[in-house]
Each structure stands twice: as C-alpha cells, then as structure tokens.
Design brief:
Blueprint (H helix, E strand, L loop, with lengths): L20 E2 H8 L3 H9 L6 E2 L5 E3 L1 H15 L4 H28 L8
Antiparallel strand pairs: 1-3, 2-3
InterPro entries: DNA-bd_dom_put_sf (IPR009061), MerR-type_HTH_dom (IPR000551)
Protein name: MerR family transcriptional regulator
Organism: Streptomyces fildesensis
C-alpha cells in the first residue's frame, strides 16, 4: 500500500499518511520486530518512505495495516496470506466508502447493514 501525499506541512500532525515513525518505534508500537516490518515491505503490503539518510519511516496508516497483518499472523495465518487478506479488506473498505459517497450524491437510500 503506497502512501498518499499532502503538501501542506501544517497538516503533518493530523496526517495519517505522514511518515513519522522510525522502524524501531513502529515495531515497538505494534508489538513486533523490525524484521516483521521488513517482511511486510518485501510482501509489498506496506512501502515505507525513506528518510534522507535512507532509513525507513512509517505512517499511522501503515502501522494500522501492519497491526492487522500481525493479528492474522498471530492467529496462525501465513504472512503472504495475511498480506492478501489485509489488501482485500482495505479494498473492500474503500469500495464501500466510494459506494456510500456515490449514493449520497445521487440522493439514494443508505445501504442496509450487512
């Protein structure tokens, strides 16, 4: 999952996509190891930005994705399968959001809970 970019630097503190966390801090925050985060990068689930010095930097959005993958792996799911599940969950969430937005614009009824 690639980060979305913002240009206004005053939004950095509120921006879920701002790469604020180092690898060590990110791993600590989600209770895993830097190796796990590297594995998620290798699987292309998350793509951390790089600092000027070449160090990986993670956003809050990426940490939520990584934490979900960790949940699945902790439940016994293989890492590649966990990554695919997280990608599909993220795509479904985005599709539902877009669908709701289009319904609102068209003035249609809200969808029923599934």
């Amino acid at each position: 999952m690639t980060p979305r970019t913002r240009t206004n630097t005053t939004d950095k503190f509120d921006d879920d996509d701002y790469p604020a966390y180092t690898m060590g801090r990110a791993a600590e925050m989600i209770g895993t190891t830097p190796a796990f985060l590297r594995a998620l990068g290798d699987a292309r689930l998350i793509t951390p930005l790089r600092s000027e010095g070449g160090h990986r930097r993670y956003s809050r959005y990426q940490l939520r994705i990584a934490a979900r993958a960790r949940e699945l792996v902790d439940q016994g799911t293989a890492i590649d399968t966990a990554c695919r599940i997280v990608i599909l969950e993220d795509q479904l969430e985005e599709a539902l959001r877009l669908n709701e937005e289009l319904r609102r614009r068209a003035g249609g009824p809200p969808p029923e809970d599934v």
